[in-house]
Structure formats: structure tokens, C-alpha cells
Amino acid sequence: MTSRYDAETDAPHVRFADAPVVASEEIRPGLILDFDADGRIVADDILDASTPIAPDADLRPMTTA
């Protein structure tokens, strides 16, 4: 696993596997998952990560199709 932070976009990027990314999906505003050819999550990005979460934000578990 590797991680890096892009200060320009305020986005941490976490890479879970070395497999090539073949698709990306923003599953919630600001949360982008990267998938390999088998549909497994290989990385994620959180945009505007330092922005506080609203008190009434929906933090229920997230699912993807």
C-alpha cells in the first residue's frame, strides 16, 4: 500500500494494489474509487479532504454497483 497527498487538489490518494486502473467512479461527492480489470478496488481519492463534514452528513456505509 502506498499513499500520497496532492496539496493543490487537497486530495490524499491511497493505492492498495499495483494492478492497472481500468475504471474510476465517484461513488459519493468527493470520493473516487479506482478499479482493476476484475472490478476490485485498487485505489481511492478523497477530494477536498480538509473540508469539515457537515453535522447532518449521511455517513451510512457506502456501496457500489
Provide an overview of this structure.
With 65 residues, this protein is mostly beta strands. Helix content is 0%, strand content 42%. It contains no helices and 5 strands. The chain has a 5-stranded antiparallel β-sheet, with no helix packed on it. It starts with a strand and ends in a 19-residue tail after the last strand. The mean pLDDT is 87.
Number of helices: 0
Mean pLDDT, nearest integer? 87
What is the terminal separation in angstroms? 24 Å
Quickly give the structural class.
Answer: mainly beta
Computed over alpha carbons, the radius of gyration is 13 Å
- Taking pLDDT < 50 over at least 5 consecutive residues as the criterion, the unreliable ranges are none
Judging from the principal axes of the Cα atoms, what is the shape? globular
Major β-sheet profile: 5 strands, antiparallel
- Total strand count, please? 5
Helical amount? under 10%
Spatial order of the strands in the main sheet? 1-2-5-4-3
Following the backbone from N to C, one meets helices and strands in this order, namely EEEEE
Query: Which percent band covers the strand fraction?
Result: 35-45%
SSE arrangement:
Layout: E1 2-6, E2 11-15, E3 23-28, E4 31-35, E5 41-46
Antiparallel strand pairs: 1-2, 2-5, 3-4, 4-5
